[in-house]
Design a protein that fits this description.
Low-confidence stretches: 417-424
Largest sheet: 5 strands, antiparallel
Mean pLDDT: 82
Strand content: 15-25%
Order of helices and strands: HHEEHEEEHHHEHEEHEEHHEE
Length: 464
């Protein structure tokens, strides 16, 4: 995680540093251009103005005759050094010195050639100077030069001060960027570290741990997802524990009964035929019950793992439902519950499915209805065609399912409070759902506690 923090801060700082360097470089170039260009522009205008003055009023005297007058008139209005140079490169007038000496430099040569000259550099004494030259015509038509020289020390100091100021501002901005980058990196890596810690605890089996959700962004969503995963694992663990307890209870009860009657018959009176018959009937019934429990487990395992296959054929759903109702009619009469199949449309389309598996679905649902419908109750089965689907509705007037259990009764091993007293592992509706999924159908439940339940099985019809 430190690596992520370093990469985030490093990337952020790199971008800021590049931006600061480019911006300060541009500003420094602009400042130098402003200051040095301003000095050169002023000198050029003064030099050009003095040259025009010379040509208009003093050129009749020639450079030698008017050099002092020209130098004094220009020097009175500028702090720069003013020199008047003859075509022979002799300094005729100088505002800073009285000695006449030859002048030979690139800027003077340009002026003598008839073009404005300029030179910027360092003197032998180490002083930065700027010179601007303008050509002046002498009486014989040759070019002399009007030269202005100014020191750049003050300008250099001003530029230097601004350079250090910009450097200091750059350091300040970089420092603030580093602090901001660290804060941003911590705001990202901090929650990730928390999530990693919680994930590690969950990996050690502590599924009660929860990651703090501090924001609504992707990290917050990740924390919520991890918490949801932990809650689901806990729920699955509870279901597993409930399943083990349920299996233990449901297997132990018939085994205890079988063993008890086996011992009774083993040590009982061989001539008591009634007792022998009763014991064998109970042993047979409990054995069937054990076989059904094991079949449910194996069935669900095959369906959930995708190993179950369907033997598809054209199925007359109305005839299949009539057969299921007839099969359970004796049981409904014993329980004094009315079980009936409503009249169906004459020509219902057929479906393509596995009749044995579909029969298992309807018998499961009807078995649940008979379990939880009291005497004098009523169970009705109805089938209708709706477009490209057939809908089978099974209604009962039983105890119903509480709202908090309704959405979960199709989960594996789940038993609502009203189902706890019933036999089975809580796999019946889960198996029904898996079978219907294989057929491209679906299961829908509606129930009112204390008033009854309505189950809809929706299956696609065979298209011709």
């Amino acid at each position: 995680m430190l690596g992520i923090r370093k990469r985030l801060v490093g990337s952020y700082l790199l971008v800021v540093l590049v931006a600061v360097v480019l911006l300060e470089g541009f500003l420094l170039l602009a400042i130098r251009s402003y200051y040095y260009g301003g000095v050169e522009q002023i000198l050029t205008k003064q030099d050009e103005s003095a040259a025009n003055f010379y040509h208009s009023y003093l050129s009749g005297k020639g450079l030698t005759g008017s050099a002092d007058s020209l130098m004094r008139s220009l020097a009175a209005n500028t702090s720069a050094q003013v020199q008047v140079i003859s075509p022979e490169r002799v300094i005729l007038a100088d505002s800073m010195m009285m000695i006449r000496q030859p002048a030979d430099s690139p800027d003077v040569n340009e002026a003598l050639a008839g073009k404005p000259g300029r030179w910027q550099g360092i003197t032998r004494q180490g002083e930065a100077i700027l010179t601007v030259d303008f050509p002046l015509k002498d009486l014989d038509g040759r070019n002399g030069a009007l030269r202005m020289v100014t020191t750049l020390t003050g300008v250099g100091q001003a530029v230097s001060r601004l350079t250090w100021l910009l450097f200091g501002l750059g350091l300040l901005v970089t420092g603030l960027a580093a602090a901001t980058g660290l804060w941003l990196a911590s705001s990202i890596t901090g929650p990730v570290l928390e999530i990693t810690r919680v994930a590690g605890e969950m990996g050690q089996g502590m599924f009660n741990s929860r990651a703090p959700v501090k924001s609504g962004d992707e990290l917050g969503n990740l924390a919520e997802t991890l918490n949801f995963l932990a809650a689901e694992i806990l729920r699955q663990e509870r279901l597993k524990s409930e399943f083990i307890a349920s299996v233990s209870h449901d297997l132990k009860t018939p085994l205890t009964s079988i063993k008890g009657w086996a011992l009774t018959l083993l040590h009982g009176d061989d001539h008591n035929q009634d007792e022998l018959r009763e014991g064998l009937q109970i042993i047979s019934g409990e054995s069937d019950r054990l076989a059904l429990l094991v079949d449910d487990l194996l069935d669900f395992s095959r369906l959930e793992s995708g190993r179950a296959t369907l033997c598809l054929e054209e199925v007359d759903l109305a005839a299949l439902l009539q057969h299921c109702v007839k099969q359970l009619q004796p049981r409904s009469e014993r329980q004094q519950v009315s079980l009936s199949l409503a009249e169906t449309e004459e020509r219902l389309p057929s479906i393509k499915g596995d009749s044995r598996r579909l029969k298992q679905v309807f018998l499961n649902i009807l078995d649940n209805a008979l379990k939880f419908t009291p005497s004098s109750g009523r169970i009705t089965v109805e089938i209708v065609g709706r477009g490209t689907e057939l809908t089978v509705t099974i209604r009962d007037t039983g105890c119903g399912i509480a709202p908090e259990h309704l959405n979960r009764v199709t989960e594996r091993f789940y038993k609502a409070e009203s189902q706890i007293r019933g036999n089975g592992l809580g796999l019946g509706l889960a198996i029904c759902r898996e079978i219907l999924d294989l057929h491209g159908g679906r299961l829908s439940l509606r129930s009112t506690s204390g008033k009854g339940t309505e189950v809809e099985v929706i299956l696609p019809v065979t298209l011709s």
